[in-house]
């Protein structure tokens, strides 16, 4: 019984990826090209998310700084949830919405890119992050789920949305993880010729 349930979960994961893969493939390639341009022009990649999406943000930033599959020079990336002292100082009811906006104001420069990861697209601190990124002249790549939420409506023509248009939170996280791995692969291939 339990092994059958596990097999069904594997099938559901594969089906979810296949359902959105054709739509996402050209957008992921476009997002990778945008990130490559950011890096070639000496920009930084700032990354944020909440909960499990923050863990994905950390993983993506670490892969840029360290490596994805093979050794190569480090790439400038900042996981905005990394500074625990600053994060916990700002996580009060009065400053929750600013938890990512403040470091974007402090560290973000025109030509940088913000990668925001969210399953709902409705978290107020992530909405504020996108707004602040636009104010500072950053491009935005938003990995969203479901209908894209409020973040989808904030994106402009220079931004890219990678939407996992399904309802399952766990499937959205899986698709976001695979999308981030695709970005890592394409960045390494385009910048360093890594196959």
N-to-C CA distance: 41 Å
**SS element count, helices:** 7
Order of strands in the sheet with the most strands? Answer: 2-1-3-4-5
Q: What fold name stands as the CATH topology?
A: Rossmann fold
- Please give the largest β-sheet: 5 strands, parallel
Q: What's the total number of strands?
A: 5
> What is the highest CATH level, the class?
Alpha Beta
Low-confidence stretches: none
Mean pLDDT: 94
Shape type: globular
Beta-strand fraction estimate: 5-15%
Order of helices and strands: HEHEHHEHEHEH
Q: Please name the fourth-level CATH homologous superfamily.
A: Glucose-6-phosphate isomerase like protein, domain 1
Q: Please bin the fraction of helical residues.
A: 55-70%
Domains counted in the coordinates: how many?
A: 1
Structural class of the helix and strand makeup? alpha/beta
Radius of gyration using CA atoms only: 17 Å
The CATH architecture is: 3-Layer(aba) Sandwich
Pfam families: SIS_2
EC number: 5.3.1.28
GO biological process, one term: carbohydrate derivative metabolic process
GO molecular function: carbohydrate derivative binding; isomerase activity
């Amino acid at each position: 019984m339990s092994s059958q349930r596990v097999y069904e979960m594997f099938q559901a994961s594969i089906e979810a990826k296949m359902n959105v893969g054709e739509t996402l493939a050209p957008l992921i390639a476009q997002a990778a090209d945008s990130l490559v341009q950011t890096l070639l022009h000496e920009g930084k990649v700032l990354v944020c998310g909440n909960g499990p999406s923050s863990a994905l943000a950390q993983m993506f930033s670490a892969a840029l700084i360290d490596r994805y599959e093979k050794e190569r020079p480090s790439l400038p990336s900042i996981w905005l949830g990394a500074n625990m002292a600053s994060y916990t100082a700002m996580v009060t009811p009065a400053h929750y919405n600013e938890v990512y906006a403040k470091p974007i104001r402090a560290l973000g420069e025109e030509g940088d890119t913000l990668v925001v990861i969210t399953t709902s697209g409705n978290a107020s601190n992530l909405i504020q992050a996108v707004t602040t990124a636009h104010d500072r002249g950053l491009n935005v790549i938003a990995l969203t789920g479901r209908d894209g939420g409020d973040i989808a409506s904030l994106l402009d023509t220079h931004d890219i949305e990678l939407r996992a248009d399904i309802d399952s939170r766990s499937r959205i996280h899986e698709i976001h993880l695979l999308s981030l791995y695709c970005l890592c692969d394409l960045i390494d291939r385009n910048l360093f010729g890594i196959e």
